[in-house]
TrEMBL record:
Listed GO CC annotations: cytoplasm
Name listed for the protein in its UniProt record: Farnesyl diphosphate synthase
Organism: Endobacter medicaginis
NCBIfam families referenced in this protein's UniProt entry, alphabetically: FPPsyn (NF045485)
PANTHER family, A to Z: FARNESYL DIPHOSPHATE SYNTHASE (PTHR43281)
MF terms in GO: (2E,6E)-farnesyl diphosphate synthase activity; dimethylallyltranstransferase activity; metal ion binding
Cofactor(s) listed in the protein's UniProt record: Mg(2+)
Keyword hit for Transferase: yes
The protein's Enzyme Commission number: 2.5.1.1, 2.5.1.10
Domain of life: Bacteria
Length: 305
C-alpha cells in the first residue's frame, strides 16, 4: 500500500473531501424528498428522518469519486449518490424493526419506528426504495437511456434477493446456526458488500466507461466492502454505543458468527488491513486522480465509528 495515503495529512484531506461530498449529497437528497401538504406528509417526514439523519455517505462518496475518475457529470453522480443513500436508509429502517434486528438506536437517534411507529417506518422504507429507482430512471441522472438501464439493472441486482436482501435473510438464519468463515464472507458480500460494490462501479457505468475500468472499480468495491464489514465487527466488539451511534454488541448477544468471533479481534484487524491493501492494488491502472479512493480504503479500516 502507498504509505503516504495513511499519513495524517492524507487522512485529513480525505476527511474534508468526505464532508464536502456528504453536504452536496444531502442537499440533493433534501430536494428529492420535498414535503407534501396532504395527509401523506407523515410518511415523507419519516423518509426524510431516515435519509437525512446523519450517516457517513460512504456509498454516495464512492459514486461521486468513481464518476469523477471516469469523466461523468457531477450533477448526475450526485443524483445517483442520493439514490443509493435512499436505498441504504430504507435498509436500515427495515433492519431496525422488531421483526428484524429490533434496535431502538440508529445514528445516535431513535430508530425510525421509535420516532414514528412501525407501520409508518415500513411505509417510509418502501417509499425510499421506490424513490431511489425513480431517481435513477430520470434523464436528469443520465441522458443516455441505455446507461440508465445498465445502472438500474446493477442497482436491482445489488439490492434484491441476490444482494442485500438475500444477505439479510442469511443474517437472520445466522441466529439459529453457526457459520464458518466462508459462510460469513458470503453473508456480508451480499448484505453489506453488494451495495458498496455497486457504488464503486456506478460512476463508471454513468460514464459508459470500458469494461476493464468497470471491472477494476468493481473489484476495488468488493474488497473495501468486506474490509468495511470486518472493521464494523471489530467496532461492534470494542466501541461503546455512544461512539457507534447504534446499540453495541448485538451480534455477540444474538450468538451470531462474525469475523471477530471466528478470527479474534487482532485477526480481524489484520484481515481488514489485508483487504484494504488488495483494494488499493485494484487501482493500479489509475494515477493520482484515484488517490481519494486509495485513502478511503485506509479510512475503512481505521475509522472509529
Amino acid at each position: 500500500m502507498n504509505q503516504t495515503l495513511a499519513e495524517p495529512g492524507a487522512r485529513l484531506e480525505l476527511g474534508a473531501r468526505l464532508s464536502q461530498t456528504a453536504r452536496e449529497i444531502e442537499t440533493v437528497l433534501a430536494a428529492l424528498l420535498p414535503l407534501p401538504a396532504g395527509p401523506e406528509r407523515r410518511v415523507v417526514e419519516a423518509m426524510r428522518y431516515a435519509a437525512l439523519g446523519g450517516g457517513k455517505r460512504l456509498r454516495g462518496f464512492l459514486i461521486v469519486e468513481g464518476a469523477a475518475l471516469c469523466g461523468a457529470p457531477r450533477s448526475g453522480a450526485l443524483r445517483a449518490a442520493a439514490s443509493v443513500e435512499m436505498l441504504h436508509a430504507y435498509s436500515l429502517v427495515h433492519d431496525d424493526l422488531p421483526a428484524m434486528d429490533d434496535d431502538d438506536l440508529r445514528r445516535g437517534q431513535p430508530s425510525c419506528h421509535r420516532r414514528f411507529d412501525e407501520a409508518t417506518a415500513i411505509l417510509a422504507g418502501d417509499a425510499l426504495q421506490t424513490r431511489a429507482f425513480e431517481v435513477l430512471a430520470d434523464a436528469a441522472t443520465a441522458e443516455d437511456a441505455a446507461v440508465r438501464c445498465r445502472l438500474i439493472t446493477a442497482f436491482a441486482l445489488a439490492s434484491g434477493a441476490d444482494g442485500m436482501v438475500g444477505g439479510q435473510m442469511i443474517d437472520m438464519e445466522g441466529e439459529k446456526t453457526r457459520f464458518d468463515l466462508d459462510q460469513v464472507r458470503r453473508l456480508h458480500a451480499l448484505k453489506t458488500g453488494a451495495l458498496i460494490r455497486f457504488s464503486a462501479e456506478a460512476g463508471a457505468i454513468l460514464a459508459d466507461a470500458p469494461v476493464a475500468v468497470r471491472d477494476s472499480l468493481l473489484a476495488y468495491g468488493r474488497d473495501i466492502g468486506t474490509a468495511f464489514q470486518v472493521a464494523d465487527d471489530v467496532l461492534d466488539a470494542t466501541a461503546p454505543a455512544e461512539v457507534l451511534g447504534k446499540t453495541a454488541g448485538k451480534d455477540l448477544a444474538a450468538g451470531k458468527s462474525t469475523f471477530v468471533s471466528l478470527l479474534g479481534i487482532d485477526g480481524a484487524r489484520a484481515e481488514a488491513l489485508r483487504l484494504a491493501q488488495a483494494a488499493v492494488a485494484h487501482l493500479g491502472s489509475f494515477g493520482p486522480e484515484a488517490d481519494a479512493l486509495r485513502a478511503l480504503a485506509v479510512h475503512m479500516v481505521e475509522r472509529k465509528s
